[in-house]
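Hey,
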Amino acid sequence: MGKQILISHRGNIDGKKPHLENHPDYINEALDLGYDVEIDLWVVNDVLYLGHDEPQYEITWEYFKHKVDKLWVHCKNIEALYFVRETRLHYFWHEEDTLTLTSNNYIWVYPGKQPIIGSIAVMPDIYGDNITHCIGVCSDYIEKYK
C-alpha cells in the first residue's frame, strides 16, 4: 500500500517512557527524527496543556506553529475539542470506541481492533494486530516500523 505513516505515541520511539511522554522537548525529539507525533491536549481555563491523564505541561499556540502538519492531536476534554476546531490542527476524540474519524478523514483504530483496511493502527504491537492493509501505525515502538 505504499509508504506507511509512522506516528510516535506521545513522543515515544523505542518504548514507553511515561516520565517523558507529552513533554514538549520529547515530542520535538521525535519530530526531529522525522516521525509524526500523537499528543494529548487539554484546555483548562483557556490555557493549553499537554499530558495524558491530566494537564501537565503548559504550552502556547506558538508551540504548534511549525508543527501543524506533523501532529495528531488527541483532545482529552471538550474544551480542547472546541479549541482545535478553530485551528488547522489535525485532531480527534475517542475513548474506547473501535474507531474514530480524524478531522483529516483518517480512520484511527483502537488497539486490538485490526485489520481495518486503510486505517491507522494504534499500538498494534500490544495485540499483534495485522497491519498489512493499514496506511499508518501509531506506537511507543515506532522505530521498529521504519
